[in-house]
Amino acid sequence: MRTASVERNTAETQIKLTLNLDGSGKSDIDSGVGFLDHMLTLFAAHSGYDLSLICHGDTQVDDHHTTEDIGIALGDAFRQALGERKGIIRYGSMWLPMDEALVLCAVDISGRSHLDYRLCIPAQKVGTFDTELVEEFYTAFVRKAELTLHLLQFEGKNSHHIIEASFKGFGRALAQATAIDEKRPDTVPSTKGVL
Questions:
Q1: Which of 55, 85, 114, 118 is a Cys-bridge partner for 148, taking CB atoms 3.0 to 4.6 Å apart?
Q2: pLDDT of residue 6
């Protein structure tokens, strides 16, 4: 089983997280940020990963540290769970429609961190959640997971729909990329021999 557990403790957040890439999409999430819980639950369901997360953060300040540090912890767990990355497909992409919103998510589990973030979220907040934190989450994840992620919005007016489309698409694209290639289950998918 491709699993990892991460604990991250700082002056701003205390996080315990477990990730199973070969799960069934179950989640048990309590970040202290309701909207982020909703997005991570969707991510787990659409990726098929099992995700357990509890975070105690300084949300009395705002949700920034919690959101960013969860991205760091989840990216770290993802990288650890993949191990040597043998047998994975490596690439994945998903066009994800969510009502009027349409977002393309494409990933390359390349060993190189790169984020191309082109979501145009019109509202500054969804509920009490600052929408600029969506980019902070993805930036933190990509840096720790060591992958390339492109998030491109083609349509969308509703901020909730745009963000939700990105998290669902991200889950689906990662599920494709981390699937085992039955033709080459023991091969690292790179002519370099490593990722």
A1: 114
A2: 98
